[in-house]
Task: inverse folding
């Protein structure tokens, strides 16, 4: 495959496996990886089942390679440099401010499209530029790095705390325990 093609299949073992390359499939995968209800091995199984159309036919000895190919596809073939970075966004929580920005770059409502390749979506995402989403991410980054916020940023944060703060996801058991403890304190 050359640089101008969008992959519709991935080579795992000696075979090309057709994949679900639409951006919605990959966002579903990323949401599962963020879900504390699932164990790590369950998340990988779900990832492979969503991404590979014929995953049920794939021999188990190919699953590790399939996972590596899945990562390469989701990362658009790029390698992460300098290790993990602080979490500055959440695909699910930030969808209401990401989608309008991507729509602006692409020039149409992407949710109305029957298909949009993940790499095309990510290309538009990387070109977002000045937007509400970029403001929120910039503010999160400054707060993570403990940098002093400008007056307008402090005001923006106070007025949009719900939008700016990343919510921690809890398992159902953790939520139940929090409710139980809260009831004890009331």
Result:
């Amino acid at each position: 495959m050359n640089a101008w093609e969008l992959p519709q299949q991935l080579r795992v073992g000696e075979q090309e496996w057709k994949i679900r390359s639409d951006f919605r499939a990959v966002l579903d995968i990323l949401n599962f990886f963020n879900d504390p209800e699932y164990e790590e091995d369950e998340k990988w199984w779900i990832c492979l089942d969503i991404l590979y159309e014929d995953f049920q036919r794939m021999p188990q000895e190919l699953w590790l390679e399939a996972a590596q190919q899945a990562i390469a596809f989701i990362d658009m073939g790029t390698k992460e440099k300098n290790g993990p970075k602080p979490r500055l966004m959440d695909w699910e929580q930030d969808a209401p401010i990401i989608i309008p920005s991507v729509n602006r770059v692409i020039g149409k409502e992407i949710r109305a499209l029957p298909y949009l390749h993940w790499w095309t979506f990510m290309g538009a995402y990387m070109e977002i530029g000045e937007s509400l989403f970029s403001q929120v991410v910039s503010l999160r980054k400054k707060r993570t790095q403990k940098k002093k916020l400008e007056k307008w940023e402090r005001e923006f944060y106070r007025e949009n705390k719900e939008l700016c703060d990343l919510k921690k996801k809890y398992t159902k058991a953790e939520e139940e325990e929090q409710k139980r403890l809260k009831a004890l304190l009331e």
